[in-house]
Amino acid sequence: MARFEENCEILESNELGRYLVARRDLARGQQILVEQPIVIGPYWDSKIRCLNCFRSSCTICRKCKRAPLCFDCTTHQETECDFYLNSGLNINFLFDHFNVVTPVRCLLLASSNRAKFDEMMSMEAHTNERRDTDIWHAHETKVVRPLLDSKAFEKMNDPSVTSELIQQICGFFDVNSFEIRGNMDDVQQVESLVRGLYTKAALMAHNCVSNTLISVDGQANLRLYTTVPVKKGEMLLYNYTRSLFGTVERRTHLKLGKYFVCTCRRCEDPTELGTHLSSVKCTGCDGGLCSYYATEDKWLCNTCTKELEKTYVNNVLSDARKDAMQCANDIHELERIITKHSKTLHPNNSILLELKQTLAGEIRNRCLMSPPSKVPEQLLERKFHLCQEMLSILRVLEPGISRLTGIALYEYNVALWDLARKKFETKVISAKELLEELSKAEGGLKESISMLLFEHPSTPEGQLTKRAMHDLKDLREEMKQVKVIVPEIQKE
Ligand SMILES: C[S@@+](CC[C@H](N)C(=O)[O-])C[C@H]1O[C@@H](n2cnc3c(N)ncnc32)[C@H](O)[C@@H]1O
């Protein structure tokens, strides 16, 4: 088991607070730590769920008569159950105020596990930055007031539970928690309901190009790995936001949710490391790209140096965003909106990229639903090129081992395989060429699996790993059969 102390050192600076650096050279894919959460629970805006497994609830705990449970679970945390049993809360309290569940779990640590409570209290909550903001008021209405008005903690003779402490605890979760993705049904995945506080992993500083990967399993164990080699003394970095957001979206997300302005290399580079995720096409020359230069507060072309009016860029971006939001998940409609906005946006612009990801997903669904012979070659070509485009961006923004690259590689190589088979069937390529394409797909699938193997089997990516392994076996079978019909290769 990876020893945190052997691999990491905690340092501190005025700008970052505490952060982690490598205590020794770490190889790509090396496990840095395995950590259990000090507390897990539904996110504060979650719908009512079973307090034991977080699936849909259909009954209540027979002992405390307050906690929602599902058909399979009969108990939940003992301290929590005792608290609800003895707190004198109205029988419907948790159904009316489900948002209090996780803050209550944190508050109960004070008496049930003081060491864990103190560890939690050492985390960053940004209470002063949050005071009087929208999120503060939301927590005040949905968590603080219901809990304090219920007088549940007073009845338990605990006067230390104040509005300030509850707000601080909400801050700990918003600033530090990680999503727990294993062992959940589809609805929970989409709503990302369950989160955990991991005091060690949460020490990593943010960077928009990270060098670590986190995998959390269904038992809430968090495993942290390097994605690229990390030298002794280098920072261990985690991306708190989404790699495929443009700079404005990433910075806004980080400012509003994590209370800092990111100044990483990617954020400071108007071209976003050459990926142009935020760029628009120049109106003054052919092929020119305009990026935002924050130091000059200008949108400038990298070819003819024309400056684009900010109102023009804002209109172009907001039109595209509006269309993207309203666009139905339909192949023709997605293609129409992509073509429309490709006239003004760089092909890698994050708005187009999201539409293209949806399109690739729709083509994938279509391929899964029809026998391979019925899927038009054009559609396969389109999926192949969409995946290729995505991979070239991901290789820059998520270097090394990456969940998204693993998924894109899988889709790319399945498309390569389907296309090669189709071209062979229509006699566009020879058996020898087919074999060459299949062996490229074999290499790609192997690389995809090598990245997805980090994912817990109960997550969607873990399930994709199983599928990719199965596909790899089929592909190798197919290669054997093709080898039989390629006499030159048999001789070799
Ligand atoms: C999850 S905590 C990380 C641990 C924290 N530094 C501590 O001392 O507890 C996230 C907070 O760390 C700080 N932080 C992390 N990465 C940063 C970065 N790249 N630039 C500035 N502040 C950062 C911010 O205050 C952010 O809200």
From TrEMBL:
The lineage of its organism: Eukaryota, Metazoa, Ecdysozoa, Arthropoda, Hexapoda. This is SET domain-containing protein. PANTHER family: RE22408P-RELATED (PTHR46455:SF6), SET AND MYND DOMAIN CONTAINING, ARTHROPOD-SPECIFIC, MEMBER 4, ISOFORM A (PTHR46455). PROSITE patterns: SET. It comes from the Eukaryota. Residues 6-241 form the SET domain.
